Amino acid sequence: MMNIERRNGADKPVIRKALVELDGKPFKFFEANRDKWAVETCFTYPGAIQYYGPSSVCDITTRTLALEKG
User: Fold this and answer.
1) Is the pTM of this model over 0.70?
2) Band (27; pLDDT cuts 50, 70, 90)
3) Separation CA 15–CA 59 (nearest Å)
4) Which residues contact 4 (CB under 8 A, 6 or more apart)?
5) Whole-angstrom Cα distance, residue 42 to residue 36?
6) Residue 29: its pLDDT value, please?
7) Kindly report the CA angle at 47 between 64 and 56, in degrees rounded to 5?
C-alpha cells in the first residue's frame, strides 16, 4: 500500500492511489455478474471474524484477493 514519492524535494512515504483496474480479474468478475446482481439478492455474509478453529473457517481470504491471485 505504501509508495515513496518525491514531494518538495524529499522522499516521503505515501499511500498509493487505489484506482480500479478495468482489465483486472476482480472487475471482470463484477462486470460479468452486475446485471444479475442488479435484480437479485446476491451477497455473502461472512459472519464474525474467526481467530481459532478449523482452517476452512479461519484462513478464508477475501473474494477480491482470491480473484487477483487466481
Assistant:
1) no
2) very high
3) 26
4) 11, 12, 13, 14
5) 8
6) 92
7) 70
Query: What count of other Cβ atoms lies within 10 Å of the Cβ of residue 16?
Result: 9
- pLDDT above 90 as % of the chain: 31
| Cβ–Cβ under 8 Å, residues 66 and 26 | no
pLDDT of residue 39: 93
Domain ranges of the chain: 20-69
Three-state secondary structure readout of 24-68: CHHHHHHHHHHHHHHHCCCCCCCCCCCCCCCHHHHCCCCHHHHHH
What is the mean pLDDT of the segment spanning 21-35?
91
